[in-house]
Amino acid sequence: MSEQQNETQADTVHRVVLNDEEQYSIWWADRDLPAGWHAEGTEGTREECLARITELWTDLRPASLRRRMSAGSAA
User: Fold this and answer.
1) What is the pTM assigned to this prediction?
2) 15 pLDDT higher than 90
3) 60 — alpha (psi -120 to 50), left (phi > 0) or beta?
C-alpha cells in the first residue's frame, strides 16, 4: 500500500453502527447508512471504532437468539 493510501485511510472518519439484531460494524461517516443499520454514536478512526465495538459487543449471538434462549430457560 502506498504512503498516500495510508494517509487517506488514517484521515477517514468512521462510525460505529448496529442493526436490529444488535450486531455491530463500522461505516464511513460521510456516507449514508445502509438499510437496517443505525448509528451507535461513536465516530473516529477505524481503530477507535473497532475498539468501541470490542467494548460494546460482548455477546456475539444475534438479539433474537438471545431472547429465544432466555425464554427457553425461563420455561
Assistant:
1) 0.77
2) yes
3) alpha
